[in-house]
């Protein structure tokens, strides 16, 4: 099966090139460019940076306190992803939709501590979910479309680490 719009392998010094997060041209101002000291821990959420990634571990002895990107984004209220839920169905089933959203966050966050919900905003005509990464919004949108059908759209910013997901369903 031939895939469309997939860059050829081997470019960029042998790095994996299939995936927006791996593209070198995407700028994420919250990602630390230099290697963090290991072990480090986030004093706000308790995640530990060890073996080159953030993980949910017990705080190691001698770990240096460094705020993780997710806590930094949350504190600044600067989302990397926004999911907008609209339509009569979304508003009438707000409770079960919110439960599904939180379930997906918990599942994602278990393996990827930086993938979190910043907040959920209630508006008269829509709900808006702000997230700390670009992967969780897609997961939430696909879960909503799978569970409740509706119309799902994704828009990835070409030059920045940002995604906008819109899910809409009327009754």
Per-chain topology:
Elements: E1 40-41, E2 48-50, E3 53-55, E4 64-65, H1 69-76, E5 81-86, H2 88-92, H3 94-111, E6 117-123, E7 126-131, H4 135-148, E8 151-156, E9 163-168
Parallel strand pairs: 1-4, 5-9
Antiparallel strand pairs: 1-2, 2-3, 5-7, 6-7, 8-9
Helix pairs in contact: 3-4
General description of the model:
With 171 residues, the protein is α+β, with helices and mostly antiparallel strands. The protein has 2 domains: 33-67, no CATH class; 79-168. Helix content is 26%, strand content 24%. The protein has 4 helices and 9 strands; from the N terminus they run ββββαβααββαββ. It has helices at 69-76, 88-92, 94-111, 135-148, and strands at residues 40-41, 48-50, 53-55, 64-65, 81-86, 117-123, 126-131, 151-156, 163-168. Helix 3 (94-111) packs across helix 4. The longest helix is centred in the middle third of the chain and has 18 residues, at 94-111. 26% of the residues are buried. Residues 1-17 have low confidence and may be disordered.
């Amino acid at each position: 099966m031939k895939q469309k719009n997939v860059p050829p392998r081997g470019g960029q010094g042998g790095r994996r090139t299939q995936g927006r997060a791996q593209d070198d041209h995407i700028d994420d101002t919250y990602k630390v460019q230099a290697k963090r000291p290991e072990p480090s821990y986030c004093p706000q959420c308790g995640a530990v940076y060890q073996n080159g990634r953030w993980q949910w571990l017990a705080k190691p002895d001698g770990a240096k306190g460094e705020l993780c990107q997710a806590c930094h984004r949350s504190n600044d209220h600067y989302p990397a992803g926004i999911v907008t839920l609209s339509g009569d169905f979304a508003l009438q089933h707000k409770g079960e939709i919110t439960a599904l959203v939180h379930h997906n966050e918990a599942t994602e966050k278990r393996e990827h501590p930086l993938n979190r919900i910043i907040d959920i905003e209630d508006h008269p005509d829509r709900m808006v979910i702000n997230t700390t990464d670009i992967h969780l919004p897609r997961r939430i949108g696909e879960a909503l479309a799978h569970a409740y059908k509706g119309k799902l759209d994704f828009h990835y910013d070409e030059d920045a680490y940002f995604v906008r997901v819109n899910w809409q369903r009327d009754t």
